[in-house]
Amino acid sequence: MSTVRARPSRRAPFLVAGAILALSAWFFPYFPSLGSPNEMTRLYLTRAILDDGSFSIDGPVERYGHINDMAGRNDRLYSDKAPGIGFLGVPVYVVAKALAGWEADGVSNASLLRWMRIVLAGVPTAAIALLLFFLLGRMGLGRPWRFFMMVAYGLGTVAFPYGVLLFGHQAATLCLLGAFALVERQTRQPGILPPVAVGLLLGTALLIEYTTALLVVPLGGWCLWVWRRRPRDLVLACAGGVVPIAVLMAYHVVCFGGPFQTGYSHLASRPFAEVHDRGLWGMVTPSGSRLLTILASPQKGLFFFTPWLLLALPALVFSCRQPGQARLRPGWYAVCTGSLLYLVFAMSLQLTAWGWSVGPRHLCPLVPFWVLAVGVLLAAGSRWSRRSKLCLRVLVPYSMAAIVLPTATFGGFPPDFSNPLADFSIRLLLAGCMPPNAASELAGVSPAWGALPFWLGCTALIVWVHWQDTDTKASKLLPLVVACLLTAAVLTITGGTTAQEARALHWVQHDILGCLP
Prior knowledge:
By secondary structure, this protein is mainly α. It contains 24 helices and two strands.
């Protein structure tokens, strides 16, 4: 008697991506007393364009208050960031303003920020996770592990906090990964539209975040290699890229007087200007200790929060040498080049220029490419692949806890703590001090109780992806136990509370979160 295997659901990847989006939108860590200048400067640009018909944010500053992240020229104020998110926020604001009867006062900054976060940070993060699912299938990885890597990326890397907050990293990353996916498709099925879209996406990434040039240039070099014998495709790609780059240069001319003049050359805040005036745009002589801080420290270390990404370093080398990746080998060379450029950038950028951040936020564009490389390693089916899977089963749940906890309790942490997870985030959690969330705002429960569905959702998702594979129950359960022990150790190991840490913790609990009398 033959058995009929159930066909895998085509909706499952979309449901997982939807779950990642819902979890990223659950909490709303926004505190008007702090101002969130990195987010508000982009929001102010959106308001200025629609409300004032201007790139100058003088109007929003006058109406809503002063912020730190601004540039000044000819007695006018501008956003100091790349303008892409401010531009993309205009359609979001149009809808919000229309629903409010076209009254700007009917759309609060908090309301607009919430929707801009969801549309321009949460949706790109979920879309990247979904794109990874299909790209990993092209790399030969099985369906259960593709689900695992979706969740690992969406909830267990720096993608999660920047899918919650209105920074440009996730939207720019989606553009870069989308361009990679289109070039990969073009190597299999040449067409007319992909080259135009690739140029448009790479140019838009630069319009959103200046630092993406570190990957845009190598990926552009890959395009030149792929289309070196097809001049038409090169012309189409350049035509697509000209549009966003021309918009960016025109913005620079209007606001700062030249196509290559950015807001960082005209910072209004003297302390910020002093940082960015050193060296080249704030980058100074590369330092090994600075790189060690960015990669390994409890304050910002990429591998402290997501140690499973250490697998990406050998995986990148493996991907370049794997016979099955011959068609994409130039693309992997481009990713390796971009990775080296980003690491040199991390070695050179002064630590104060990273701001308050969960992990090294400027490295966000690298992460999905490293996830792809890890997927290639897993798909090889070698002894190292099996060992890598075991490491992932242990380290991904830890990474989820290390990434999600500070995002859910405060949206990050002040730069005052030797181990911010144990000395700051876990103390806020145990005290029930949390920002508003969907349940607390809709059902009127306390933020601590409103967080319960979020924690249950995260737990259910990681348990579900663990159980997708055909391994034995023991091989699935034991890594989870080890992951729980590792997480518990990191969340409880503390060197004691200094006076500075105690003041910072009390300030957040009393003045910002208002959970202390």
